[in-house]
From TrEMBL:
This is Vacuolar cation/proton exchanger. The chain crosses the membrane at residues 20-40, 52-74, 86-110, 122-144, 156-175, 210-229, 235-255, 276-301, 307-328, 335-356. The gene is LOC120256645. GO terms for cellular component: plant-type vacuole membrane. Pfam families: Na_Ca_ex. It comes from Dioscorea cayennensis subsp. rotundata (White Guinea yam).
Amino acid sequence: MEINGSRGPPLSQLSSLQLQGWVFLLSMLGIIPLAERLGFATEQLVFFTGPTVGGLLNATFGNATELIISIFALENGMIRIVQQSLLGSILSNMLLVLGCAFFSGGLVFYNKEQVFDKSAAVMNSGLLLMAVMGLLSPAVLYYTHTELHFGKSELALSRFTSCIMLVVYASYIFYQLKIQKGNHDHQNEAVGQNVESEDDEAPEISKMEAIIWLAFFTGWIAVLSEYLVQAIEGASIALKIPLAFISVILLPIVGNAAEHASAIMFAMKDKLDISLGVAIGSSTQIAMFGIPFCVIIGWIMGIPMDLNFQLFETATLFITVIVVAFMLQDGTSNYFKGLMLILCYLIVAASFYVHVDPQSIGEPPGV
């Protein structure tokens, strides 16, 4: 017998969905402080590795949360959640994190324009545009129905492109470690007195303690990420929030907690090059390493993870990269640029709240 003609789920299913909603919320809230502490442990390790290796470590462990969530989602066959969460991480870093850093630094130093290394920003913008090209080709191939073998050519192209992107990223790391090291040493000699006066900080924990804490926090994030992924579809229905919005907006904000705090802190100390390295460097690493890495892992696991992120998502990323590239081209920042980036992110968030992904499972009805 139906109660009041209800067409909704049974009470037992409803309580299960509510439980999943609470599991999702609590797991998400639990990951935030762990991500922040992971960032702290990484920063402590940087004292013992040097700035070049430290920058790569900061970006790698800063993106550890997103990669762990993606691997668990991939293991459960949630390909679209993997794609959208990685896409959201890039958008969050480029618009929200960088925007807040520019805005905060601009308010502290409102009487001048802050400056940063324009050449590094241009190189990262180029890598991000290459990543857009890699994502755009399979999507256009799919939607124009010009594949040699429908459904197979798209996947084969994605795997080939992913291997190319990983080679490019490995070359980029080699360039940073070998070529730019000499340039940075030369620059440090020129401004050595300023560096000595500003960088009097000392590590708060030892190298071994930093490594132990990194392993500990990474393990806890992995545990909570598994609960998070398993509850995400039920939470989408229980909370009446589109799955695309959760994947693109909420999950990356949780994963980028450490980057967000670090970028703002360094911008307020007028160390904008570090803020830019945290925000844009993390975006570049996700685009050129995280996404193709998940494609290769899916290939190994027999899961057809590809680079077809759908036209809506790919177009959003392309426009974002263009907007940020224009913001960075003159090598200066102020609070108004930061405000524009933050408002752009609000437009993106609103777009994904009203966007219904036809390939997602578990979209709440009527959203």
